[in-house]
Structures are given as C-alpha cells and as structure tokens.
Amino acid sequence: MLDPNLLLPVALGIGLAAATGFRVFIPLLTMSAAANFGHLPLSDGFAWLGTLPALAMLTVAAVAEIGAFYVPAIDNLLDVVATPAAIAAGVAVSAAVMTDMTPMLKWSLAIIAGGGAAAMTQGATAALRAHSTVLTAGFGNMFVATAELGGSLILSILALAAPVIAMVLVIAFMWLAFRMLRGMRRKNIPS
Q: In angstroms, rounded to a whole number, what is the distance separating the alpha carbons of residues 52 and 169?
C-alpha cells in the first residue's frame, strides 16, 4: 500500500507527466522555473533542472515546440516524434518530483504511472489532431494546438499548486479520452 505521505509527490508526478502529453517542454519549463525559485524540490539526479542554463534551454525548446505545432503538416509529423518524447518526458518528470522514495518504487511509479499518463494524453491529442486534419483539411489544427498548449500550461501549474486536484483531472481526462476514442472507432467500423 502506498504511504499517504507519498500521495502528493505521486500526484504531482502524474499531473506533470500527463501535461507532457500535450506539450513535451512546457511541464519541464514549469518545473525548472519552480525549482529555480525554490518552490519545487527535485530528487537526486534531477538537480540540473533547477539551474539557469536548464531554464534558458527549456524556454527556447518550449517556444520552438509551440511555434512548430502551428505550422500545417509539421504538426502531424511532430505528433509522431512527440509520442516517444512525451513518454520519456513523462517518466522523467515523474521521477524528478518523487522524492523520499526508494529507487525501485520511484522508477516503477514513474514508468508505469508517469509514462502511462503521458502516453494516454499524447495518444488522445494525436487522434484528435488526425481527425481535425481529415475534417478541416488541417485548418482546425491551430485550435487543437491552442487547446493543447492551454492544457499543458494549466495542468502543469495546477500540478504544482494542487497535485491531487490535477491527478483527479488527469483521471477524468483519461476517461473522456477513452470514451471519445471508442466512439470514433465505432463510427469507423462498417455495419
């Protein structure tokens, strides 16, 4: 059974990991800013996130990622690249904030919960973008990109401010995404 004192770091990790499914670098940038200002303790091996060079590098990466998702055709290509990157980032952000845990527990939770949350979020947004591309010839993708950016920002900040609420929101999003994807699949199955 999970120690109640570990609930907040686990919820924080899951919230940030799910946010990497929307945008890979926004949660990392948010974490770096929070760590630089002394508001976020990081586990061993992730102290580099709390440095000014990391903050600068992540700012540039986040701006480039945001801009690239507004370029037609590149946005769909980025979804292919972003999927493994989001999963890796989801594992990393989870492990970075799961302090005071044994390495076995931390990495197990980071891989399963963090990587799983990132994969589910990324998968749902990639499916939404693919449907938007088909239905609007790509013209609706800028709205999808804006929603993803907003989702990543809001979820990253909420995870830092209220981790348990962020985790509940992630669970609700996953349930809705599952229902949406199941509905899309049913429409595509010939009768």
A: 31
Task: Round to whole Å and give the CA distance between 160 and 83.
Answer: 23
Q: Could you give the CA distance from residue 35 to residue 150 in angstroms, rounded to a whole number? A: 21
Per the structure, the count of domains in the chain is 1
- pLDDT of 190 reads 59
Residue 2: inside a domain: no
The two tokens of residue 159 are 């995870």
Domain membership of residue 20 as a residue range: 7-188
CB-CB contact of 22 with 90 (8 Å): no
Q: Give the residue among 38, 32, 26 at the shortest CA–CA distance from 56.
A: 32
128-184 tens-digit pLDDT? 888 888 888 888 889 999 999 999 999 999 999 999 999 999 999 889 888 877 877
Alpha helices of the chain — where are they, by DSSP H?
A: 7-22, 25-36, 52-68, 74-97, 103-109, 115-136, 141-161, 163-188
- Indicate the Cα dihedral angle 92, 68, 167, 57, nearest 10°: 40
Asked whether residue 169 is assigned to any structural domain, the reply reads yes
159, part of any domain: yes
